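Q: Give me a protein?
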Amino acid sequence: MSMNEGLLLIAVGVVVAILLRFLAARRSAAKQEEQEALDQRAADEAERQAAEAAARREAERQAAEAAARREAERQAAEAAARREADRRAAEEAARLEAERQSVEEAQRLEDEERQAVEVAIAEESARQAAEEAQRRRTAAAAQVKTPEQTVVMVADDSRVVRVKTGRLLAAHRYQVLMAEDGQDAGRQIEKAVPDVLVTDVDMPGMDGLELARQVRGNPRTAHLPIIMVTSDSDELRIQARAAGVNVVLGKPYPEEQLIAHIQQLLGNPPRA
């Protein structure tokens, strides 16, 4: 082998070595670039996942805030509704209390007025009774009628009671007039005033109380003694006295008691 061939072989070997090194370097660079690309993709993926996680957390935070805001608004609305309901309930209670007090005050004033009227009626009845008693005493002092001269009117819507009472009075020699009710009695008294009026309280049309008030309201008949037959009731006794009734007989009563009261009314001061 010549020197030139040896040098050529050496040169070729050097070139080959350089090429091999170059190729090795290229492979190494390619591997490095590939690794860097992989690392970059991994970093990008990690960044993407981190961004997605951050976005989810932000979305969850916003959703939680929205839910909390809606709950707060709901609770505020419920609290406002309760306050409004309480206010309305308080206003209604105050209105009802005011109405109750107004009704009580009206009732109190009505009771006071009624009591005043009752007192006035009682006083007027007492005055009329006193005047009537004085007139009867004066008349009795001048002349005392005998039973035959005494006219007793019996006013009762029951025919049985009228007949029974009439027979009792006739047995004691009194003259008897019969009236079927208060209106009939009033008409007869207008024509001729009897000496005594015996009336039931419960009659159709005009009852005994109204008849008594009518008699007392007429100056021509205000002196007429009145005996009222009714149930034994304190309330009715009070009403009868207020109407000007002289004697109240409770059902049933002894017949002698009626005759005794008639005799007292004709000859003595009246007693209720």
Summary: The first helix runs from residue 3 to 142. Confidence is low (pLDDT under 50) at residues 268-272.
